[in-house]
Structures are given as C-alpha cells and as structure tokens.
Amino acid sequence: MDPEAVRTFVAVADEGQIQLAAAGLGITQQAASKRIAALERQLGVRLLLRTPRGARLTLDGTAFLPHARAVLAAVAEAEAAVRPGARPLRVDVLGTRVSTAGLLQDFHRAHPDAALDVTVVRTAGRAALEAVRDGGVDASFWAHSLPAERLPAPVRTARVLDEPAVLAVGPAHPLAGRETVSPADLAGLRIVMPGLDPTSEWGVYYAEFAAAFGFRLDASGPAFGMEHMARTITASDDLGTFIGTRTPLTRPTGLGLHFVALARPTPVYPHWLLWRDDNPHPALRLLRAHLADRYEREPVPDDELWVPDWPANRA
Which tens digit of pLDDT belongs to each residue from 125-143? Predict the structure, then answer.
C-alpha cells in the first residue's frame, strides 16, 4: 500500500475537496485523483464519492479512515526511528578494557549529548570491516588496515591513535632497573600474553613484533585477567609482558610491577577508525572530527617507530 496514496485520501477526507487536499500536499489535483483511484483499485472498494460540492466518504471510506490514520502514524514513527541522529551512534570498540574504549569515553565527555551505543563485535579486523560495510555498526576500530583503494565502497578509514607499548616486569627481572630499553634487548626473553588469539589483529601484531626482535611470545595458559597476570609477572625473575601506555583501564598499579619504556625503535599499535562515507548520522561526523583533532603521531622520527609491515600502516 502506497503511504502517499493513503496520505492523500486522509487529506481529502479532512478537507472535503480534492483540490484543497492537493494544494496542501503540494501536488496537482490530477495527481491527487490518480492516487485515490489507485488506492481504490488496490482495495477493491470506493472510498470517496465525487459531488459538485467536493468529495465525501463512502461507508467503506468511513471504515477505512481510522486505519488510514494509523498507517500514517506508523509511517511517521518508522521514519523518526531512523532519522539521522534519532538513534544512538553504534560504535565497535574492539574491547571494553582497551584504549579504543578510552577514546569513546573521551568523546562522550566532550560531547555528552551525543548518544552512544558501545559494543564489541570481535577482535578480528575483517569482522569490524564487515560490520561497518553491512551496517551492523556505524563505526569501528581496527589495525590491519587495507590501502584505501582496496576498501569496499563506501567504507573509509583514518588513523586515529598510535599506542606505544611498554615492557612490564617484576622487581627481580634483569631489566627491572632500566628506564628505557630497545626492543633488540628483548631477544631471547619470554613475553607472556595468555589467551592471545593468533588470528586476531593483536595476535598478528605481536607475532610480527616477536619475529622482528627475537623474543619468545608465549600465549599459552588460561587468561585470568590482567591482575592475575601482573601478580604472576611480579613473582617471576624472567617473565615480562607488554602494556599499552594509553590503556589506563588495564594498567595495574600497586602490584609491584616495573614499567620499562621501549625506544629506538618505539613499538606502536596503530588504531584506525572505519566508517561508511554515506552514513548521515550527525554524531559520526562529530566523532570523526573529535578523533582527527586529537590524533598525534609519536614525537620521534619515523625510522625510530616500529609498526607492522601492513600496507596502510606505512602510510
């Protein structure tokens, strides 16, 4: 059933004349008559009787009128539900206890009136890409970015955060007294990251990092959370792990850990924002502008940064 035909019928019923109803709808009298005729053919009944004084409802028209008004109300509600900005902006943050969640918290503080629906799709980058492409979320973060020419239209991406990693070790670890070490100093050391999915972006990142600098990456064992791992490392003289400097949600304090900066090169985990260029949600424009205004590359030369050898991360 054509909502515009129903709208025209209701307008004629209210005005009592097709000409007045057509003028109110901004269409010609002929167009209004055609809409009414098409609606009557679809329903198989006469809804209006044309008279010298205008148009009046038939018995069927009188029975149909309250339902027609209900149809228009439902259409209005449906349109309002998807009107840009009417629903919360749905953003995949990859994890609720990682730096991307912190980015959304900062955005919320800066724009408290922008409604957000924060979700976690999965840690794999392809899942985030597919969720944005298919409309499951308005935006997502990922790291294993493709070159712009290989992104499915109309998906776009922009680098929004470089998160340096620091080494966390216990007080008895041989590197515990150092303020800064090079990743090359990690060769042969055992770095534990229990529960790390080797197929996830995080897994691929740290596997390449380990291969580049020769440390042993150990993802075995159950993942009992950051506090449990921190206690295990604190009690060990040979274990270490990595923690992002911009991930305050997971950085433990008061557990005896020693944090050692990594430099020359500084390993950074690059986060990119994904969105559809044809998404009209006003909060999406605010989010993109907010992240673009606050993005800062690490204040060291490019040859002193280490990022994975992924095409877009070298851009």
Answer: 678 888 899 888 999 998 8
CB proximity list for 37: less than 8 A, separation 6 or greater: none
| DSSP element (H, E) containing 134 | none
- Helix (H) / strand (E) element for 13: namely helix 3-15
Distance CA 224, CA 243 (A): 16
Buried b (16+ CB within 10 A) or exposed e, 51-82: eeebbebeeebeebbeebeebbeeeeeeeeee
Rounded to an integer, what distance in angstroms lies between the CA atom of residue 270 and that of residue 205? Answer: 10
Question: Could you give the 3-state DSSP secondary structure of residue 54?
Answer: strand
Per-residue confidence (pLDDT) for residue 198, from 0 to 100: 85
Angle (deg, nearest 10), helices 99-110 and 282-294: 110
pLDDT digits (tens, 9 = 90+) for 37-92: 999 999 999 999 988 888 899 999 999 999 999 999 898 888 877 777 678 999 99
CA distance 270 to 251: 19
The CA R_g of the chain, rounded to the nearest whole Å, is 30
What is the Cα–Cα distance from 99 to 8, expressed in whole angstroms? 53
Residue with tokens 């990251």: 193
pLDDT in tens, 264-282: 999 999 889 999 999 999 9
DSSP alpha helix (H) spans, 111-246: 125-133, 201-213, 226-234
Amino acid at site 57: L
Q: Which tokens in the block code for residue 111? A: 């724009």
Q: Which of 243, 193, 247, 250 is nearest to 222 (CA)?
A: 193
pLDDT averaged over the chain? 87
